[in-house]
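Internal ticket #5521
Category: modeling
Description: The requester needs a full-assembly model to guide mutagenesis choices. All entity lines are attached below as received. Residue total reported by intake: 1488.
Assigned to: D.W.
Attached entities:
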Amino acid sequence: MSDQSTTVAPSVPPPPPTGPPPKVTNRGRTVAPTASSNFEAADVPEFERFDVAGPRGPGMPSLAEYLDIWDVDMLKKPDESNKTNHHTSLYQSDYLIVRRGQEFQIKITFNRPYKLAEDKFAVEFVIGSSPQFSKGTYNPVFPTKERQTSWSGRITDESDNVITMGITPAANCIVGKYHMYVAVMTPFGIRRTKRENSRDLYILFNPWVSADAVFLDDEEERKECVMTEMGIIYHGAYDDISERNWNYGQFNYGVLDACLYIMDRSEMPIINRGDPIKVTRQASAMLNSHDEDGVLVGNWTGDYTYGVAPTSWTGSTDILLTYASSKLPVCFAQCWVYAAVFNTFLRCLGIPSRVVTNYYSAHDNDGNLKTDILLDENGRIDRNRTKDSIWNYHCWNECYMSRPDLPPGFGGWQVVDATPQETSDGMYRCGPASVNAIKHGQLCFPFDAAFVFAEVNSDVVFYSRRKDGTMQAVKVDRTHVGRMILTKAAGDMTRRNIIDQYKFPEGTTEERTVLEKAEEFGCKREKSELPVADVDLILPTLEISVGDNFDLSLEFVNRSDQQRTVDTYVSGNVVYYTGVNSSEFLFRNPTVKIGPNNSVKEVIVVQSKNYMRHLVEQANLNFIVTGKVKETGHIVSVMKVITLHNPKVIVEVSGGGRVNEEMMATVQFTNPFTITLEDVYIRMEGPGIMPPKTKYYSLITGGSSLIWTEFFTPHRPGSTRVFATLDCPALRQVFGEASVTINP
Amino acid sequence: MSDQSTTVAPSVPPPPPTGPPPKVTNRGRTVAPTASSNFEAADVPEFERFDVAGPRGPGMPSLAEYLDIWDVDMLKKPDESNKTNHHTSLYQSDYLIVRRGQEFQIKITFNRPYKLAEDKFAVEFVIGSSPQFSKGTYNPVFPTKERQTSWSGRITDESDNVITMGITPAANCIVGKYHMYVAVMTPFGIRRTKRENSRDLYILFNPWVSADAVFLDDEEERKECVMTEMGIIYHGAYDDISERNWNYGQFNYGVLDACLYIMDRSEMPIINRGDPIKVTRQASAMLNSHDEDGVLVGNWTGDYTYGVAPTSWTGSTDILLTYASSKLPVCFAQCWVYAAVFNTFLRCLGIPSRVVTNYYSAHDNDGNLKTDILLDENGRIDRNRTKDSIWNYHCWNECYMSRPDLPPGFGGWQVVDATPQETSDGMYRCGPASVNAIKHGQLCFPFDAAFVFAEVNSDVVFYSRRKDGTMQAVKVDRTHVGRMILTKAAGDMTRRNIIDQYKFPEGTTEERTVLEKAEEFGCKREKSELPVADVDLILPTLEISVGDNFDLSLEFVNRSDQQRTVDTYVSGNVVYYTGVNSSEFLFRNPTVKIGPNNSVKEVIVVQSKNYMRHLVEQANLNFIVTGKVKETGHIVSVMKVITLHNPKVIVEVSGGGRVNEEMMATVQFTNPFTITLEDVYIRMEGPGIMPPKTKYYSLITGGSSLIWTEFFTPHRPGSTRVFATLDCPALRQVFGEASVTINP
């Protein structure tokens, strides 16, 4: 017994085998791989022979005597009752599209009249590659009057060889594309129709039915948040609001398939696709390209050479169709592009949704309710050490659903956000977070409520940094962040401020209680009681166009009975909408004396030549004024973003005005600058009437003009807009629009 | 004015530029990239000149007159009080390792005696590439008696030029590797010590201090769950438990750095690394290779050619060091490997943790409390359609911490699971989920509580499938899943059943209430009241060795006053521990008649030749017996896993028995089979006394034996084990061990 024996062979281990390792499979781990593709189908046999023999022998009927199916009519024309009743007529699709929990009709033609007592058949609805009755991926529907557990069927009409069958999918069934079969039971086995593409159907979420988790009991909101393609997204500054038109295009040809492809691409199990919580959470991850090669690549650098500038898009259709065909992330997006395309996804699947804009949105704070601004001992901002930023605005989505996973009271609007955040639970996704939970500080519930709470409730804390590196809080601004939340009003083109759904009014008892509640769940706040200066600093609201010189008038108000002297630092910066500074173009440090109970204006002249060459795409100027009151040592400060107004393109629509009559849209633009604009793209589209169109101009010299004309034929009536963007590296965010009403 | 003008140039858009697109940066999005590497350091200047001039002119002291630092002694030897007081003496490391919230000492030698009134200095602790006071990544500590907000310092001893300073890091400070500097304030600026590696220190979580979120107020548990390297992991079947030894090795050289590397690799922001909730959640994602190239590649196929078989590992050290040096995922793992390496990670960083084993663990159920078994109309199992499986056992981790993000009552033990699950929130990570929340059905709180709840509470539902494809539930087994949860007892080598921490006893009112609560949060259960058969079916508990023939005796008990006839189907299957069937090696269908109030035994002879060639690695046989009672139509069924016992290796330790005396370990093995074993690896290690060792044998012929001898020298006293595994494609899961006590 030793390892010298010839029968035991110790040796140097062999080198590892060469070549790629074998693909690790599910063998030994799961019985079947999880079905996660809606476009892979199972093989369903045309004839399923029974193992146990049925009646046989002489005198027994032959297979030929059983019911045979000659034809199935899905009743899928846009003007047939299925599509009108289910609010799906607008989808440009060759297939039947219905909503769950609501009856639709199909017509089946047999080889002979159907005999209730003798003939047994089922209409089968199958989704994904692993159909199972208990998972909801295989759903047989029988013509019966009994109440069935989930899917139900009944015969609504019979004539000759033809029956009309009403089918009601379960109100919580999987959403996606199903295959349909008709199966006839015979004693020999099941005889089934062949797979035929034309009988495929889409089943969507149904906000019109109370049993559906996305039920929204308000027809005007439903029309807006499910059926409306025309979007308005707000940006700019809270006191100088700008609008951006967007064509959600959720009914456009190919968009529905693209939305299903997004879920397939994320390998989301088919069986989870009936749950709007899971669908929206997964989609918030998939709309950005992080982690899973999702739809949109974020880019905030100003260099969009290798894609389309975020400011240039006019709608979601191009983006979704490009993603579905190229199977590669689309370049480039910023927050409103993520929110707009996410909105298309949600409305297309039937989940009520809207895009909202939060003005002064705190970011990357990771549930810590503070944005830090560091000043040196004299009150001047310390640019090297100030690393937090507040976005001038940030767009996200709200979607409407019940929340059975939470205690009662947290259903309704939910925040989801597809813009990749740095620190939302280590992942690039956010939500659904109950808006009501955010309002009440109930941050213990999934998903990411604390993160959204911080976006609307953070304090801005000014610290004075001592020479030894320690810091002292000198001022807390509790009202700067989350100033206003805007969304398009249902049913018209106006805006609506919904901040009251996120916060109780500033200064109320409820507001204080909520902040205390939030702290219980770990949100940290600056709580020092800080001395309030008796000097106020006020900056005016200004509307300025790009290229203008203007006066910035600082008002100093002394509320004390003594004279006050303020050593003031005025810093003018070009900023991205994310609050990140590009460069400082103006610096002044006046010393201002104010008599007792008096006020003084200090005028700063801002010249366009100083800021023009620094401008980044959204042309925001951020003024930060800080100062130290000599007599008291108090720090005063005020910040203001001024959004410079860009030139516009002029869009005009003429001719026609009726369905199927040709119309003309023209875009006009005059380069108002002395510089030549190069590599200019103009994009134009019109929700419901004009698909996306693009025109390229290699150069537009200073002062020159262009006119671009396109013809189009509207195919449906209604009020809408045609709008255009102009985009080039030197000038972005140029918009124009025309309202159009198409008569029937 | 037209686009024919030479100054406006419409044209075909240029082709996209060639070459790779530029790397998208953070420019315009965030001020600074998020620091997420513990091994990248910021440049801290040696002299930081003040912008504003200090006192100057004749008569002013020169820089030379200010305090200068000659030496800093970190007092980091294993037997010095820092390491003994902080329970870090066992770490094999050249650096100081301390725990947060608890004072440690350093000695600073100046160029002259320190003068309290005149000299100003700070000891600075810096972590990551973007040090900021307000983020806790830059922490200056002054020698003061004032209470400081977070980190504090005091002078504990002074003699000549040397002071001893006591430093207490904040009890919630970031965990990781810090750099230390001493900074002296002068009127000219800050004079700082050079970066010197030897002054780096690690700060860990501290379960001994009540202010730390991981405080565990039980010395015996703390010793087990933080300090113990010797692990026992349970597997096998709930009525025939097997043990596996594991060396967590959390104090071994390089392991702590490997754990920090794991967080760096996941790009976890440095500022989140003081929060045990975030650290454990991130780690549960990073321990598996899905999504982020994490530590371990899962493989359940039985083919481990390209790596180490999961059954072959003896400890975590090899795995962690390989990952940190190769920066590639390590092959291969199954659940206990994930749990064991995760345990090392947690204990190494100071978070109390243990590995637990759940017997009959329901999987891939996605919060749906049902595992479906499909029978045909006659009661025979339908293998093609039964797609759910129940793991014979599943291992996960519990870790101990407060949960400030949840309402009171949910702190304490938390489930985290690093084994990649299919459907935990779309991601391959799970937890932390409060054990107490699981017990009380409070599934609305993060993270993944519903998923873990299903693992221990699912019902097994037997369906009878009708010919038309519909299904009817015929039997529900509510007690099969989550039969027992075992973990190693604190302080000794015995096991402890902690199922009462997860569930109220079967049949109690509390249990029913909890299940109802869980249903409120969306867990679906089979609720039909099903008829109970009056015939019981009982399978015996058997202990069988691989290669044995044995009798399986089925007992039929008739509890009625009439005769009963049961058409029975007995199916014997080789299964993976995941409950997935490899192949059916036995099938019988006896018809059994039982007299009124009588019982009958039906004996099935199982021959090894039938199962041997099908065996997969853990050699489990699963018997499913189903039957239909002719007289009543009721379905009866019973399932049982029989774990075949493998041969063992014999480990013997001799000689020495004292610290620093050489000892000898021998491994003996005899191949009990007639076949030759090829490509055999034997691994051996001993927690605290022997590093991992491996021996390779190209072949061991049938009946032959081997002896392998290794010498080792223990460096510390205590009771421990030396254990070995033997592994080859034809035979896995062969273990052996020897207990050893080392005297001082």
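Resolution: model delivered.
Comment from assignee: Chain B has four domains: 65-204, 229-521, 535-645, 650-742.
Ticket closed.
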